[in-house]
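Q: Can I see a sequence and its folded structure?
A: Here is a first one.
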Amino acid sequence: MEIIAQHQTLFLALALACGLYMTWGIGANDVANAMGTTVGSGAITVRQAVVLAATMEFLGAYLAGGAVADTIAKGIIDGELFVPVPHLLVFGMIAALLATGIWLMVATLRGWPVSTTHTIVGAVCGVGVAALGVDAVQWETMAEIVANWFISPVLGGLVSLLLTLSIRRFIFNTRDPVGQARKWAPVYAFLVGWIVSLIVVVKGLKHVDITLGNVEGQVLAVAIGIVVAIAARLIMNGVQLDARADRAFQYASVERLFIPQMVFTGAAMAFAHGSNDVANGIGPMAAAIQIIETQAVSATSPVTPLMLFIGGLGIVAGLATYGYKVMATLGHKITELTPTRAYCATIAAAFVTVAASGFGLPVSTTHIAVGAVMGVGIARGIGALDLRVVSGIVVSWLVTVPVGAILAAITFHILRASFS
């Protein structure tokens, strides 16, 4: 640790800079998971999406990002093995952040929607093996994480498929789509109010000294959902739509009714995304800073509200500069989206992401969002999907983990040799 002590300021600056670089990549690449469907449906413009997502991503990261950050920081590699050589863990965390940031930058510039979770987990594994061998990796935790990578897109796709089929069954495939939309819109509005309030009440208040139990939070979330449903019913009664118009016009009218709901579901997904994916950058950065300051590997949580605040700033910066590139892939290229389809995909992705974040599982929001969009497309048949785009995305998922591991291992050896 003499090396770290002698260059403490330098290593603190490196950890902070690489953490910000990594979170910039999160904002630039993963913004598609939160806003791609909303923009692709035509509900809001790209500029409006950037403003909305920037606000909600920051709030999600700062208010509700702690649980998954701890998993990334402490759960992937065995910190006890680094107790005799804590400086190697510092090198490893910095290398993982830098390697992940580089890969995300390359992917973003090419418009590839890669998984930041895949990248950082692969990078952390890579430095663990490079530093102390395969025993340094918590393979049981890795197995759980990998299992969730496969389960999460299936869950996202299943939920969005069921929602899409329900809208088709209860609204579009009826004699009076507009009348049925008036009848069922409050139900779908309830889902929006429930998921948004559940995110904020159960997750978003724990960092501002307000604690609610699961029962209280659920009751309050349901109550808010009911209020939103009642408001939607009142709004529906005041909206003038001609039920005698041709079906094409009625379909268009129904789609317009779902546009306001897309704004709320997009905001919910942005909050959920920020709460989950800030961990990818803040976890390793926090672990490195803790060791630099204490000169030892600790079992306590290294994540602080200030670090979550810094991570939120990095995500917003990436979103504002290059977020539009990957947004186009998810919003336009996988399948054609309308407000109702985008609503189903987004509410499904938000629900699965929030559930995962609540359990502290670093699932890939990219997988969840893509799975949800594919579920919407499958509701209209396989032909509604652009399989070339889907296959390209899947290939990028398969490549990302080894690329992250190899880049991080190389960067680790460079840092170790530079300060040996």
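Q: Show me another, different protein.
A: A second, unrelated one:
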Amino acid sequence: MTDTLAFSTNSRQEPAQSLLLADHLDSFWNQKIRPLFTDESLSFRVKTRNGKYVRYINLDNGATTTPFASLKQYVNEMLDTYGSVHRGSGQKSIITTQEYDASRDIIRKFVNSSSQNYVIFAKNTTEAINGAATLWAKRPGKILVSDIEHSSNLLPWVTRDEVVQYRTQPDGSVSLAEIENIFKAHQNRSKAEQIKLLTITGASTITGYRPPIYELAALAHKYGAKMFADVCQLIQHERVDMRADDDPCHLDFVAFSGHKMYAPYGTGVLLGPKEFFDGSYPYQIGGGNLPYITRNLEIKRFYTERAHDPGTPNAMGAIAIAKAIQIIEELGRDRIAEYEHSLVDFTFTRLQAIPGVKVHIPGDNLAHVIPFDIDGFDGRLVAEILAQEYGIGVRAGAFCTYEYIRKLKNISDEQDCEIAKEVESGITRNIPSIIRASFAVYNTLEDCDRFLYAISEIAQNGLDYYLPHYTQNQTTGVWTAIDR
């Protein structure tokens, strides 16, 4: 696959002897990974600016992933027997209801969840967190949230509840001592002023940084709070273990999405304690999640997961997540992590050696993403060049993690104020951005080689080489190729 592969003998990620050699990576991919995806998805071709067609390389997997082939087939077959969930007595309704309900058990087992936890479905992770935030807002106390969160794990809390924002270190890392100081500062206050919930990402969408979620959970429980982990950027790459309820490090709540773990339809999942949800009025209400309404409009409710499952659910989305989980388990999460880390380590080592490239992570705790910039280039232009001239998909922007971007780009308070003023007038061009390459299990060493070659060529060519061929929208900052 490549003649350039030579893993560093002093890799800081793991001992060199434990890393897979190139031929082993190729063998693992061909024997174990390739059969999991359709030939059409793996060999999808796109037309570049020079008129040639090339195989598309997806390095934007932090956004969404290609579905497993057998999952697509399974869902298509299920559609032939599709019926209403929890609604009918006919065979199709029974079959679909059984599959839908069984998916909860598969999900629960996947994260080693307590049997006392509900598995609640939503449109996506964002809706799942909004649902949790709505219910938590009805309880006294404050939410402790970090400044490295994706907007989906920030805005639902900020707009519904009283929050205390924890400022991470300059590199975005967490200090357990500083968080404990926050808990201590609030513990002797009134119930309304105490910390009731700590919420944090399982892995950063922009750097891949993984906060110590289990140590944080133990800290939260020490001060009588609960722990909420947004694991939608983690669970498809590494094992997430909610742990037993009597374990001080257990995760009380987790949320994630199927579309980031090789399942289509975008369904989200929220897991949390049965007693919490039974003690809360449902986030949404309507047909199907209540058994009876009296003549006087008195609402009778379920004390099951159905109370939080209004309307006709996205049964195929839930079933798809369950099937994706089974495929991931068969492949092995440890093997997935080892393979992906090998690709990222290979790419990181060579990317940071390209003149003019700045990688925004140190490399001592690599995950599944590499954030970087090229000197003199707007990151959004680099992403457009990669797509239009090399057939490589990455993403550039703020990734809904504005404070983390400000940390990485050293944006001053004065600059932040200027950007905010521009945004209020409709100009988003100068919102700080970064380029992100994010990896998945179907990526290969050949993908990494093509990506590295492209970045090297772009950096060598320089900005002036591309300016005659691309134009930027002065309001949005979006770059587009100029038709020849």
